[in-house]
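Ticket reopened. Same input as before:
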Amino acid sequence: QNDEDTFKILIATDIHLGYLEKDAIRGNDTFVTFDEIMKQAVQNEVDFVLLGGDLFHDNKPSRKTMHCCMEVMRKYCMGDRPIIFEILSDQAVNFSHSKFPWVNYLDSNLNISIPVFSVHGNHDDPTGADGLCAIDLLSCAGLINHFGRSRSVEKLEISPVLLQKGNTRIALYGIGSIPDERLYRMFINNQVTMLRPREDEDGWFNLFVIHQNRSKHGATNYIPEQFLDDFLDLVVWGHEHECKIAPVRNEQQLFYVTQPGSSVITSLSPGEAVKKHIGLLRVKGKKMNLQKIPLQTIRQFFIQDVTLSEHPDLFSPEQPNVMLKVMDFCQEKVEEMLEEAERQRLGNSLTPEKPLIRLRVDYSGGFEVFNTMRFSQKFVDRVANPKDILHFIRHREAKDNIKEEGMDFEAILSHPTSEVLQLRVEDLVKEYFQKAEKNVQLSLLTEQGMGKAVQEFVDKEEKDAIEELIKYQLEKTQRYLRERRVEATEEKIDEEIRQFRDSKRNTAEEDEEVQEAIIRAKAHRDRSDSVRDDDLNLSDEPADIAVESDEASTSAPTIRGRGRGSRGTSRRGREDSDSDENVAFLKCSKPKQKLTSLSASKRGSQSQSQSFKGVCFDDEDEFDPFKGSRPQRR
Amino acid sequence: QNDEDTFKILIATDIHLGYLEKDAIRGNDTFVTFDEIMKQAVQNEVDFVLLGGDLFHDNKPSRKTMHCCMEVMRKYCMGDRPIIFEILSDQAVNFSHSKFPWVNYLDSNLNISIPVFSVHGNHDDPTGADGLCAIDLLSCAGLINHFGRSRSVEKLEISPVLLQKGNTRIALYGIGSIPDERLYRMFINNQVTMLRPREDEDGWFNLFVIHQNRSKHGATNYIPEQFLDDFLDLVVWGHEHECKIAPVRNEQQLFYVTQPGSSVITSLSPGEAVKKHIGLLRVKGKKMNLQKIPLQTIRQFFIQDVTLSEHPDLFSPEQPNVMLKVMDFCQEKVEEMLEEAERQRLGNSLTPEKPLIRLRVDYSGGFEVFNTMRFSQKFVDRVANPKDILHFIRHREAKDNIKEEGMDFEAILSHPTSEVLQLRVEDLVKEYFQKAEKNVQLSLLTEQGMGKAVQEFVDKEEKDAIEELIKYQLEKTQRYLRERRVEATEEKIDEEIRQFRDSKRNTAEEDEEVQEAIIRAKAHRDRSDSVRDDDLNLSDEPADIAVESDEASTSAPTIRGRGRGSRGTSRRGREDSDSDENVAFLKCSKPKQKLTSLSASKRGSQSQSQSFKGVCFDDEDEFDPFKGSRPQRR
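Engineering reply: fixed in the latest deploy. New output:
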């Protein structure tokens, strides 16, 4: 079962360490669950842990969060258990952005027992002139292997981490979070290249980690699965918080996609009410099996919708004291959910005591809302979110329409709020510009540019955003003036600058330039879209009542390995993958690498892929050696 | 020379990583010098590094700063060189606040070659509910050993780290930075206890690290050396930035004090113009030798004072175009300093190119200031601080008076600025309170409490300060109301609260309570005093022209060991300090400690100390085996 040719990999994503860390009730949830996840890694004796981004909730995690994270990783990832797989790729390429550009378990000064590999997410992405992100601190401390990093904003060349255990070889690809529009554009422009090993190209299990929108939020604001290379075997999709960890086969591309989902509930929407799991992935040759491991420390979450006008027998808007009756009705519903929570929690000592409860009340049809404060008071000791149990909505018709189209009501409701917030910041900037004498001090800046920079400042605590934008615009203007050979009198210069700027105001060009200014000046990107994405993240599900009932969650589904080229793995003899040699390999800080050369694989056209599939796909190669065995429950 | 009984310890303090990190010229200075310091530790093959606090300049260091720090420490402090000293004290006590309460070099998962021990300073002190500080992140990553931590704000019991190398035994004491007034009070109230090893009490070399004001800034705003226990042998004094590293004997207490000074210039005052060094301390038995190591990467700093009225031959206030002449005069002085800088820098490739220059111009006697902007323009490419080369002052008489009393003029000049800043914050708060309807929303808060909390928020980016103060005041008021058994009508309560608060307004009691509120609510302290201390830090020197001329700085002074009880060290046989055993000891994460029991030593009265000294001090025990040997220059 756990033989010397089988990789065991724990997969998890969107752990969001530090989410609500100040909350008296929920403050420790993310730390407790991270501890549980890493403990699972130890107990299952995995070869490594693979994370799909957003390990941290904040771009600049608090000291406490960073401290907790390091503590857990040092506790579980260090020790004497030997690591029995090799790395064949050029680590200096895989980890080129690191000050210690090699995998942590090969560093002779660190006694790593479980290496962790991670891409960054949109929450913990690189910012600032140095392009550092929160997990780079962990990487510098030797606790994590940060891969899937790219410095270019125009093209991607993804060089896989090549791993070998016994006769099994994995090519691990990753892309750290990039704004969806940009990555979409890169794919469209054929600027994404996946390098493949030249040697025995089809003998590798190709594993890919991505942290982007999977569900469509606008034309180019997501990454269609069809964009991804068809030689891949399994895609681990981060960013989306709903647990859909059972791999789903993409029938066009013939790869599987697993979406582990977040390990903490960051919004009270139906997607987060789905029972949360991490995965134990086994890979042997080209075959794989993914075992779901239910997380025990997740706070329970119950969500229910009621539509007042659907209960004419109980009350009508004209009734006297209808508000009290509605309140009693809602209270009853909450009590029901609390009872259900209590019942389900029985016997599971790890589940936090107070559940999250959300009752969405559609009060259209003449009803009025009541004071939720008093309502909350009744549940203050029994619910983890007493302040926002109730959510009043009044768009019954709209909601129904949306339901039919498979969209989420909550997403639309939440949208205006964030836009309002953004407008407010932009308004402030506009007001400032109107007051300032435009042509004196601030002639170089456009309102829009300033607005974006301020937004950056607010969203990411990115203190340099404003300064960097100013620098960029200054340089651009100087270049323009130099090109125009403007005479150096102040009046002339002022006039030229005004013309230069006004010619761009409110044009698409300005928009693009501001975008590029922020991208280039910071060598990185603004996250304003992604931040909002997050609220919308779980919104592609119909707004059904999603009370947890996934009792079958512990039964590991049988994953059909695709097996293309799997027989090829036997071509490698035992002599160069001897596990003794692997162990000896462990403590060599300048590893004697068996570098495998790579060749480019550009995403081909659809027809090419299809024909390729036609040749290689072999349905008979189904393989699941571990079916039905689930020893990890305790 | 470097025998098996001699401890070699690198001492340094106030490295202030991240100071001016955004500055285009000086931004990397602290990182470069930290690299130099740690490289010196490696090249001198020291047993450990001892830091005196303020490793970081900011309480919440930027990601870049933390990353740079970890990079340097991982690079220099890890490796295969064996560590050949033992730790005899109970590490769980020494590092009780740590999640990994043992010295890093005994952790079997970390291959430490040079352990670093540090107390925290006032810049990087613990804050927040968790009481974590910046170096705790390093400690959690296994890169530093943070000692001298106390949780109590009323009393201190200092349990030393007991170290043994061959026959030499060191008891290492430390106190992380505490507001001077508080520590002063603790000493006065006899609440500071230093524990001493019971076994062979006088056989230890007693080394103490402190990070407080050494020079007097007000009655209780410093720590007199006389407060410190007289059994100490050497005190390493951090916080003061002027390098006075040559140990000075305190004739009353009969210990030596070394003040290494900062390794970066954080204020353009004379104390910082003194050549900067770190120390290589050798301890053998009770004898010590301290070798000064000049730092090569320090940016040069020249400071000069001119008094215009002392040059009647050159110009008088009535002269036409006097301002241009004064400007020429100043320019000449700056040129002189630049030439001197260039001359001194020759042949030292590590010294940064552009020096810091400060010309203090006393323009009293009818002269006028001129535009420093234009003046700066002339030196913009040659000076590291073009914007603030000139400093106009006009208090000739005051200055002379102060000089006589040994106080610093600069300090007084800088004082108003910070007070103005503070007043501005307080004014904002007052204004807010005046606008708010006092008895409705904000009746629980005093202006002063709010002001302090806001100050905390501003100074330390301590986001919880305001919230915590409110919580504290709320609880206090609730307690008061409970005790008074006030009837629960809103009017009654409002009235009582108003009385409660007004009774305290502007009283000393209020002041104390606010103080305690912040201390207790945060379990820690406000730094408002310490922050200002820092500007005053170097101010105890007469404001002389302090152009560097310490050419003799490389000649190591002979330090006379006091030797009290030093012969006692030979009582320990070789069998339990065998260096082979020590090496084997290295990789045992649960060390088989030879715990040495401790007994309390409360600071006795002066007369007691004197008599004790009389008995024990033996002047014949002078020892300096390494006199004149300085191989570390390269």
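Residues 412-534 of chain B form one domain. Chain B has 16 helices and 19 strands. Please confirm and we'll close it.
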